[in-house]
Design a protein that fits this description.
mainly alpha; globular; 69% helix; 274 residues
């Protein structure tokens, strides 16, 4: 049987996997208002443990040819640039954004550690993403966007719930708008980073992409930026729906819908694998 025909199916990946990772002591607890947000760091330089963890894993994966390094290298660049934007006071709530970045990273590394340990707690979309990336011949763009789909369309929804749930109903419309504006400003930071991602990661892994970049100029960066902006817009809408859910049953139904949609996107991304 060819690799193309052995792509993992939903049944193959085990339906019993949880919708999301259970709470972990490794996750920081965040409140929007006093008491002050407990932070893992206060400046970019103090974010070194997170950046170092990313860099260490990237170095290991590069050495052994693990394709998962593509997404993590891009994610590392984005994280650095958002942290720089935080220190430059580009956000309404810079310390909230910093805490969000660390909670966001917790979801990625918990999923990665669970997968590497063969743990059934690995979220379905991450199990599919890690397995497909490592066991099938994918184009570098597929490798990248499988990770982007899982982390943005899935993890970011859960991260926003963690960051906003305790105070959401006490926020005024203006206060909610300020947090949404910070969420949207990250789109701009990501768009400023896309060219560096292409130059330092994508084109190194796939030299033919350099020709595409030359021929299309800024068109390809614009298209990628618009896709990510659209995904992140939908993420905020999903988070709002979950935060406004009438009860646990409605929230669980929305989480099931989320899992279905991110898995559908993951399968579409991997469809061209050979």
């Amino acid at each position: 049987m060819s690799e193309k025909n052995s792509q993992p199916s939903d049944m193959d990946i085990v339906h019993s996997r949880p919708l999301y990772l259970p709470p972990s002591a490794a996750l920081i607890h965040v409140e929007i208002f006093p008491p002050a947000i407990p932070l893992l760091c206060t400046t970019v330089s103090e974010s070194v443990p997170l950046i170092s963890r990313m860099d260490s894993r990237i170095a290991t994966w590069r050495q052994c040819g693990d394709a998962r390094c593509v997404f993590l290298e891009c994610y590392g660049l984005m994280t650095r640039n958002v942290l720089l934007a935080v220190d430059a006071q580009e956000f309404h709530h810079p310390e909230w954004v910093r805490a969000l970045l660390h909670r966001f990273a917790d979801y990625y590394f918990l999923a990665l550690d669970a997968y590497d340990a063969g743990d059934d707690a690995t979220p379905l979309v991450w199990h599919y993403t890690f397995r497909t990336t490592t066991q099938h011949r994918l184009h570098v763009v597929q490798q990248l966007f499988l990770g982007v789909n899982a982390h943005i369309n899935y993890d970011l929804v859960l991260t926003l719930i963690d960051m906003l749930d305790s105070s959401w109903h006490a926020l005024t419309p203006q206060e909610r708008e300020a947090f949404y504006a910070d969420h949207c400003h990250i789109n701009e930071v990501i768009e400023r980073t896309i060219d560096a991602v292409q130059d330092t990661v994508v084109e190194r892994c796939s030299p033919s992409m350099d020709l595409i970049d030359t021929l299309l100029g800024r068109v390809d960066e614009f298209m990628i930026g618009q896709l990510i902006r659209r995904w992140r817009g939908a993420v905020w809408e999903r988070a709002e729906a979950l935060l406004n859910a009438a009860d646990a049953a409605q929230r669980d139904a929305l989480l099931l819908e989320l899992q279905h949609d991110v898995m559908h996107t993951a399968r579409r991304i991997s469809l061209g694998a050979s």
